[in-house]
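Hello,

Our lab assistant flagged a job as stuck in the queue for most of the afternoon. It eventually completed. Since we weren't sure the result was trustworthy after the delay, we are filing this so someone can double-check. Below is the sequence as submitted and the structure that was eventually returned. Let us know if re-running is recommended.
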Amino acid sequence: MNTSTDSRAVRRAARFATVTAMFGILAGAAVLASPAQASVPDGWSNPADVDPLHAIALLAGVPLLLFVVIALAVYLPSLARGEKFSGGAAGPDPEWFGGPRKGNDELAAPDTAESQAGGASGQW
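-- returned structure --
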């Protein structure tokens, strides 16, 4: 036999073994994931089925109600003080603490050659 034929046969066998093993793993996982077919023990209660509408109302309504309560707790104090809310309104002007009182273009120029005022003093 030729070596290329041998390597093809080995590849086919490996591919078949891999696919077979993956199928076995998936089938085993499906069997293990299936629900148990057991009845309720004698000492336990057997509760009634839950109404889907009641479950949806409970699972969606409670978080929505909590959201509304928190939003009201945040906004009501400021509304009581008379603050107005408008979307996109500009806030207060930005302030540069410790900076010049006027614009940047009005900074003082250096008085002499030894003065450090007026800009960077990088040197090589």
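-- support follow-up --
The delay was a queue issue, not a problem with the job. The result is valid. The two ends are 76 Å apart (CA to CA). The longest helix spans residues 3-33.
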